[in-house]
Amino acid sequence: MTGSVLAVHRSSGHEFSKYAEEAITLVEGVGVEGDAHAGATVKHRSRVKRDPSAPNLRQVHLLHAELFDELVERGFTVFPGDLGENVTTRGVDLLALPAGTVLRLGDAAEVELTGLRNPCSQIDRFQPGLASAVLDRDAAGALVRKAGVMAVVRRGGVVRAGDTIVVQLPQGPRHSLAPV
């Protein structure tokens, strides 16, 4: 399974949206160089309050561009980077991948999926009604979080728009992504 990187983003501050970049550098065990959420331990403010020594399972936020297509059809104005992702993808069903999946981004960088992004109240402050639009229910009535996936950097490297994404599924038993 392959896809592509549509856009890359980062922000040195804890703003909701991130800024488009020509390229970002992923640093092994840390995240996106120069991004406010980079670090071996948690950097998201709510998680730092709970336990600042907890490992950072949210070093890189990836979001599928297909969600933007869906949201635009529903009347929202959203573009890559608006929802705070570092990497906007196309052609990979991120939400269907199991925990532990490794994505090779470009020639060298690799990230390992750790879980789902749990939409927060900041989404509705960005655009009213958007939080409920990034949530859904499956056929069994279970909640589906569509706001992207989180990952840790397993191998550093430069990532650019247009890079190929190669998916490596984990060996052994597979577990669905859960919010992290």
Structure write-up:
Residues 18-168 form the MOSC domain. This is MOSC domain-containing protein. The chain is globular. The chain contains four helices and 13 strands. Helix content is 13%, strand content 34%. With 180 residues, it is mainly β. A seven-stranded mixed beta barrel has the order 1-6-5-11-8-7-13. The chain has a three-stranded antiparallel sheet with strand order 4-3-12, with no helix packed on it. The mean pLDDT is 96. It has one domain (2-168): M1 Pyruvate Kinase, Domain 3, CATH 2.40.33.20. Strand 1 (2-10) and strand 2 (19-21) form a beta hairpin.
Summarize the structure.
The protein has 180 residues and is mostly beta strands. Helix content is 13%, strand content 34%. The chain is built from 4 helices and 13 strands.
CATH architecture: Beta Barrel
Helix content: 10-25%
Shape: globular
What string, H for helix and E for strand, traces the elements in order?
EEEEHEHEEEHHEEEEE
- N/C terminus separation: 24 Å
Average pLDDT, rounded to a whole number, is 96
Chain-wise SSE layout:
Layout: E1 2-10, E2 19-21, E3 23-27, E4 31-32, H1 45-50, E5 60-64, H2 65-73, E6 87-90, E7 102-105, E8 109-116, H3 122-126, H4 130-133, E9 135-137, E10 143-145, E11 149-155, E12 157-160, E13 164-168
Parallel strand pairs: 5-6
Antiparallel strand pairs: 1-2, 1-6, 1-13, 3-4, 3-12, 5-11, 7-8, 7-13, 8-11, 9-10
Looking at this protein, list some descriptive labels:
mainly beta; 180 residues; Pyrv_Knase-like_insert_dom_sf; seven-stranded mixed β-barrel; M1 Pyruvate Kinase, Domain 3; 4 helices; single chain; three-stranded antiparallel sheet
